[in-house]
Amino acid sequence: MELSPDLLAWRADLTKPAGPLNGLARATQQRINRIIPEKVHAAITVAIEGMTRALLVGSDFTTGSPMLGLTLDERRAKAAKAIDGWKTAAAAEGGITGAGGFLMAAADFPLLMSFKIKLLFEIAAVFGHDGTELPERLYILHIFELAFSDAQHRAGVLAAMDDWDARPHPAHLDDFDWRAFQQQYRDHIDLAKLAQFIPVVGAPLGAIVNWRLVERLGRTAVMAYRMRAEQGAGSEIPLL
Question: In principle, which of 9, 35, 124, 197 could form an S-S bond with 129, CB 3.0–4.6 Å?
């Protein structure tokens, strides 16, 4: 089935090569990554994997029953409300930690990650999916990658998400590429979040950056679930 024009445009935008400034920032981050010892990369991978796994399987994210029988407009309205709520919470948290110096700014990372994961579970339920199932949690991780990766990586993620409900999925989270997940995420947000460590301006910048990161993730999730519906996720999710 051919996707709606706005979904096709969204997919094209996701895989569009980075502009000169973004390309320069990406090249700079890659040079930094090459300098960092491998054992440090490995330790960060283990830490982010452990934190993300805990968030995925934690009882706080066992959502209620998937919302069935809603129109697409109703789902989009509920998703927008959820996004607005988490944007506000993330902005407030970013402002507080940004004003608190280095240690509090560092604490922003796991807090913001938890807000993002909670939002994705909420949007999954809004679009009629059960976040307690492993395939759904893998889909949530892929949405995260779409929002916070470079164009080349996003193209591979999109290919993996196409016709999601018609393809087999790994039986364990161990099969997920955690190294690529953490490095893409770090590379994507590190430069934006560095400003949060700057005295005086850290608080307002932290609030703005968190707001925009959650907004981007929410929009990505809505588009991803719409794409999945149009590709045949199930009759309970209307396409119009």
Answer: 124
pLDDT for res 174: 84
Name residue, tokens 């959502």.
63
208, 189, 151: which is closest to 48 by C-alpha? 189
CA-nearest of 109, 126, 113 to 60 is 113
H or E segment to which residue 171 belongs: none
For residue 68, CA distances in Å to 76, 146, 234 come to 13, 26, 11
Helix, strand, or coil (residue 170): coil
Which phi-psi region, left, alpha or beta, contains residue 101 (left: φ > 0; alpha: ψ -120 to 50)? Answer: left
Answer whether 204's CB lies under 8 Å from 106's CB. no
State both tokens at 121.
């579970």
Encode pLDDT of 30-60 as tens digits: 675 676 567 756 666 676 777 777 777 764 5
Sign of the C-alpha dihedral computed for residues 149, 154, 158 and 161 taken in this order: negative
Instruction: Give the C-alpha separation, 225 to 76, whole Å.
Output: 10
For every residue of 187-221, DSSP letters joined together read HHHHHHHHGGGSTTTHHHHHHHHHHHHHHHHHHHH
Q: Could you read off the pLDDT of 174-207 as tens digits, one per residue? A: 888 888 888 888 777 655 555 555 554 455 666 7
Alpha-carbon distance 9 to 189, whole Å? 24
| CB environment 60-98: b (16+ within 10 A), e (fewer) | ebebeebbeebebeebbebbeebbeebbebbbebbbbbb
